Amino acid sequence: MSxxxxxxxxxxxxxxxLTAVEQTVATAESLTAGLLSATIAGVPGASAVLRxxxxxxxxxxKHSLAGVDAAVLATDGPxxxxxxxxxxxxxxxxxGADWGIGLTGVAGPDPQDGWPVGTVFLAVAGPDGTEVVxxxxxxxxxxxxxxxxxxxxxxxxRRVGA
Length: 162
Known about the structure:
This protein is of the alpha/beta class. It has one domain: CinA-like (Maf protein), CATH 3.90.950. It is 43% helix and 21% strand. The chain contains seven helices and five strands. It has a five-stranded mixed beta sheet. Strand 4 and strand 5 form a beta hairpin. 42% of the residues are buried. The model has no long low-confidence stretch (mean pLDDT 95).
């Protein structure tokens, strides 16, 4: 029986792309709370490419576990492009990976720090620098979180293949 989550997200393609170039990935996840790492780990062969990750749901953990600068959290907040960027770099450095992914945002049901529900910041840090994308996703908490995972997997697969 196949895993419906892995089937819903193109994680197989990501694992194959990373394996082909002998590179690794690590995650720092806030709103997805480990869903991205779990999705990647659901693919056979993921142990060759997934270094690990941190769940930094609480704001203080973004600083203490993922290395987000306390000043960034104080000025920009936990839901911000700069926070996502530092999450991605923190994951990459902390776990010793070629790639780091940072995810932060608002899954709802209420807005947070002036950001509407569905706002997600996705950052990918790699050998050629860090890119941050702001997403606006629709649906309930599950749909937003799954959409963020799908976007992260798609974006990293694109970057690895570029």
